[in-house]
Write a structure and sequence with these properties.
The complex is a heterodimer of chains A (199) and B (392). Chain A is α+β, with helices and mostly antiparallel strands and 199 residues long. Chain A is 33% helix and 24% strand. Chain A has a 7-stranded antiparallel beta sheet, sandwiched between helices. In chain A, strands 1-2 form a two-stranded parallel ribbon. Classes of the chains: A alpha+beta (199), B alpha+beta (392).
Chain lengths: 199, 392
């Protein structure tokens, strides 16, 4: 018995796309915990693929940002861990990324990693959904508004910051308030001495 | 032309115009309410942002002193223990203090007075961080004397109450501001509420007005319809009455017409009977008009004269008949028959001469009777009898 008469170019194309779709859905589910070297050495890694590794990760709030290997090994963490790791990995792959910290009404805050090439940000809350990238303008205000909308809340201030795994230190680059203009505290500009960086 | 059959132009209904105007007003009020409410809502959102802003600033102010205390406490612990975990702890707390300060600076950036006021607090906090840096520097350098001197100087100079007073003063101002902004928010919410309620009330009144107009128009139309029905009923009654009268008149006329026909037939019958009577008389009978022209004659007269009726009808009787001795040479125009007719007298058995068709004079005995119609002489009847020739 042969299937040759039933294999048309159209059915072959359909089978190809179905396989592609199945593989795309299956890959992040079937993988074991990814490691930092794997992320850094994957030549075809981009923001979307990066997010695909975190679909199964659990949420766990930590006061301090976890070191990247710890976060990847435990497969649990919070928005800071995810955003800082995304910033670290994607920067290594040549992407222009920014870390944005949004403070909402009350003592709630959220951090995301904005990827300039994608004009979108990576959000730990979107790790398990199909659209892992949320599109927003590059302005801190636009990003903060989009983040606040996604959390159905109002934002008060937002900061762009950098983080170093080595020094385990956050550096504020710019902080704005929703009602005011952007402010760049001289004390927080990277490269300058931070009076609160007691060392 | 087609225009002859086209309906007359409908006059604009004023009630319809008023109702439409009412609904237009209702829509305008609704539009106004929506516009004002949206504007109020935007202002409320903006005010709410300011309330959140003030809340956030107060929150940042509230954590400054505890964070500084925790950082300095951690530093003291590190100085005592030299433990790396204590080192990391105070560093993290100072970094946290820096972040709170940055956030507070950002929150006060829009208001110069607040900015200036907070600048003093930020300066004091930065000084505390600078002292901590210097302490750590001496600690790492192992310069115990310099470290001790710095600690002593700091203990003498630093008065934490100054920072507490500044923060408390600033916080108190922010609390007042929060109350004011919250009141503004409340008033804006009230304005929105009153705008919506007033708009709804106006719309309700306008709807009531429109309903009243419609009800009034319907009542007027019902009344007009009832009057029209009454008028129609009256007209219908009159038409029925008139129709009955006409029917009765028609029946009467039909009966009268029948009677007339019967009367006419009776008259014709009587006339024919009279003519038969006249025709059956053996004596010559001439019926004459008031002017003594022959209007009718019987067969005996035709036989006696030998003339056809056509030759005698409407001709003077004198053409064929004359009274014997009736001509007076002194009065040539005197006609005794005419005189008799005019006076309404009768003549009986008078001698006369009849001129026949052949021109012969035939002696006749003549009787003349005037014809009366309601006491007026309208003609006469002449009866001739052939008189026998006188025997010698």
């Amino acid at each position: 018995m042969t299937f040759a008469p039933y294999i048309t170019p159209w059915s072959r194309r359909l089978a190809f796309w179905l396989c592609l779709l199945a593989s795309g859905l299956a890959v992040p589910l079937d993988l074991d915990a990814v490691t930092l070297p794997e992320l850094l050495e994957n030549p075809r890694l981009n923001a979307k693929k990066f997010a695909g590794y975190f679909g199964d990760y659990a949420y766990e709030f930590n006061e301090a940002i976890q070191p990247a290997p710890v976060f990847l090994a435990r497969e649990k963490g919070d928005c800071d861990d995810y955003a800082v790791l995304a910033d670290f990995v994607l920067k290594k792959h040549g992407f222009d990324t920014r870390l944005i910290h949004v403070r909402l009404t009350g003592r709630v805050a959220h951090a995301v990693c904005y990827v300039m090439e994608n004009k979108a940000y990576l959000d730990y809350n979107n790790r398990a959904v199909f659209f892992t990238l949320a599109h927003a303008g590059p302005d801190i205000r636009a990003i903060a508004a989009k983040v606040a909308d996604s959390l159905e809340s109002s934002w008060t201030t937002a900061s762009e910051f950098s983080y170093s795994y080595e020094s385990r230190r956050k550096l504020m680059i710019a902080t704005i308030s929703k009602t005011g203009e952007a402010v760049e505290p001289p004390s927080s500009v990277p490269g300058k001495s931070d009076p609160f960086n007691v060392d | 032309m087609s225009t002859e059959n086209s309906p007359p132009p409908v006059a604009a209904d004023p009630t319809m115009r008023r109702v439409l105007a009412c609904f237009g007003l209702i829509l305008a009020v609704l539009g106004l309410v929506v516009a004002v409410s949206l504007n109020n809502l935007n202002r409320t959102v903006a005010t709410s942002d300011w309330v959140n802003h003030t809340h956030a600033l107060i929150t940042e102010l509230d954590v400054l002193q505890p964070t500084l205390a925790a950082a300095e406490g951690g530093l003291s612990r590190y100085l005592l223990t030299a433990d790396q975990r204590d080192h990391t702890a105070y560093q993290d707390k100072f970094a946290e203090l820096g972040e709170h300060t940055d956030v507070a600076i950002a929150l006060t950036a829009g208001t110069p007075a607040e900015q200036q006021q907070f600048q003093q607090i930020a300066l004091l906090l930065a000084k505390r961080a600078d002292v901590a840096s210097r302490i750590i520097h001496f600690k790492k350098a192992g310069d115990t004397a310099a470290l001790q001197q710095l600690l002593n100087e700091d203990a003498e100079k630093y008065d934490h109450r100054e920072l507490a007073q500044l923060i408390e003063k600033f916080r108190s101002a922010q609390t007042d501001l929060l109350s004011a902004r919250d009141r503004t928010l409340y008033l804006q919410a009230q304005t929105t509420r009153w705008t919506v309620l007033t708009g709804l009330g106006l719309d309700f009144l306008l709807l009531c007005g429109a309903a009243w107009l419609i009800r009034d128009a319907l009542a007027a139309r019902t009344l007009a319809n009832r009057l029209l029905q009454q008028t129609n009923a009256q007209l219908e009654e009159k038409v029925n009455q008139r129709t009955a009268e006409l029917s009765a008149s028609n029946a009467q006329l039909a009966a009268q017409s029948l009677e007339d026909r019967w009367s006419k037939q009776a008259l014709e019958h009587q006339n024919r009977y009279n003519l038969l009577i006249i025709d059956s008389i053996a004596d010559a009978v001439f019926v004459v008009t008031k002017l003594l022209n022959v209007s009718r004659l019987n067969p005996a007269a035709i036989h006696l004269t030998g003339l056809e009726p056509v030759e005698l009808i409407d001709k003077p009787l004198a053409r064929v008949l004359a009274l014997e001795g009736g001509k007076d040479p002194a009065k040539p125009n005197f006609d005794p028959l005419a005189r008799t007719l005019a006076e309404g007298h009768e003549l009986r058995d008078k001698a006369g001469l009849l001129t026949t068709k052949g021109g012969q004079s035939v002696p006749v005995r003549l009787s003349f009777y005037p014809l009366r119609d309601r006491d007026k002489v309208v003609g006469g009847v002449v009866i001739l009898q052939h008189s026998a020739p006188a025997h010698p």
